[in-house]
């Protein structure tokens, strides 16, 4: 192989390497963003669970009060 062929080959490999490194860097950035999204969704899910549990407790208390009121009326 001549110097020009080696140079051409080296440039081709170098360009492919740059593309691969760029793709990997982009994927790493996407993974970081997705991890943050997962953490945020997990926090919101926990908040929703807490609110749901509170609503269930309030509903049970209301049912108890309605039952007591109905017994007093009857």
Automatic annotation (TrEMBL):
The lineage of its organism: Bacteria, Pseudomonadati, Campylobacterota, Epsilonproteobacteria, Campylobacterales. Keywords: Membrane, Transmembrane, Transmembrane helix. The chain crosses the membrane at residues 6-27. This is Uncharacterized protein.
């Amino acid at each position: 192989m001549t110097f020009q062929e080696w140079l051409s080959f080296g440039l081709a490999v170098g360009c492919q390497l740059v593309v691969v490194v760029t793709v990997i860097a982009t994927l790493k950035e996407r993974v970081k963003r997705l991890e943050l999204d997962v953490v945020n969704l997990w926090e919101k899910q926990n908040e929703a669970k807490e609110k749901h549990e509170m609503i269930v407790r309030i509903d049970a208390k209301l049912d108890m009060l309605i039952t007591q009121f109905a017994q007093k009326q009857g």
